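Two proteins, back to back. First:
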Amino acid sequence: MTIRVAVAGATGKMGKLAVRLIEEAPDLELHAALDSRSALDGADVALDVTHPAASGDIVRHAVEARIPVVVGTSGWSADRITGIRRLHGEVDGAQAVVFVPNFSVGSVLGTAFAALAARFFDSVEIVEAHHAGKVDSPSGTAVRTAELMAAARGLEGPVSAPHADQRARGQLVGGIPVHSLRLSGVLAEQRVVLGGDGETLTISHATLSPSSYEAGILLALRRAPELEGVTVGLETLLDLGLPSAGEA
């Protein structure tokens, strides 16, 4: 069976990459390459890789039109996703919504390892760096990592975040300080630094080429039509056994 895919944001870097992958895949077909949400209609699955300001309307339209949608646009906070969950529950026959903060399998594994380690360290900070043109901060990957680490701690409670009132200490996400860098010469990097008595553990991932996103994009597009509800994170498609924060 061929899956017809509509790509919103097809003229951007991620959009162009997705269009190429779809055209090369024997089981995928490009239904539409667009910036307008209306051309999503008739697709088997939609891919949103637009801009934070445009993404909300596209996702809402997909839900109301009962089209499965993979959301690769950054800037989706837990509150915004809660709003989509509410809408999804109000639309009879609504199809799956899959939010993917990062399509890189390596990045997803880094987040999984960080969530696993979070229970054992009371001192945690995240440093993420992206190219100078990235418009949102913290990154969706950093937000997802912090949320999963906070969920994994459970009864251990929040991490120690001294002097959190000082702006230079970073933005608190799930009680964890997140520091964002936007620099020329960088594609995407994240370091999670965990501190304990007499030791530190650093979990680091660097994206060196957009090709690192290819496997994750294809996986999400192929799985979305068979999923239900609202799903957050590529890790939910990889069966890594992470905590349930952000899942439907």
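And the second protein:
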Amino acid sequence: MPLSDIIDRIAKEEARVGRAPGSTQLIAVSKVQPLERVVAVLEEGHRVFGENKVQEAASKWPDLKERFDGVELHLIGPLQSNKTRQAMGLFDVIHSVDRPKLASAIARIAVEEGQCPKLFIQVNTGEEPQKAGIMPADLDEFVEECRALGLPVVGLMCIPPVEEEPSLHFALLAKMAKRNGLDQLSMGMSSDFESAIAQGATHVRVGSAIFGEREYG
């Protein structure tokens, strides 16, 4: 599906639910996509992209950022503590802050480097043991910890369980964000981004619907 179709669907959903036009940012998720597909989307003028892995992003985005001005890069996958410094140098926004140890590492490196990407806290809304994210019951305390460390936390992120109605999880995330005075919500993917917009998503993460199915080697 062309990029323009996704942008159109976002605009229609914003209008349908009475949201301001352009209040949802589209993150084009380029993980595991062939370089020519990514370049094609850049050439269409899109500048906000998401990657899952630090190593993959490091192998392609420094060159692409030299070729195309104004790229904003988001890390949407889990971040290992030993990749924190590299991630903070590469990404403008990190969506997967999910544990105190990682928050402390980011805070320490931010002081050393004199800069820090914007941060989202990932919440495990489905309380799935195999999935990253802070548990809902621990969130308020974790937000306070991050603020005490001086971290620029701007919002919350979630990935709902595959077999559950996503809008319930989006509504839960919105409620938790409001309670903590956070106004940005990273939620919704190719299959459910319209439902996320209806629940207040400020960032939707769309990959295969823009680029086509991923080709895992």
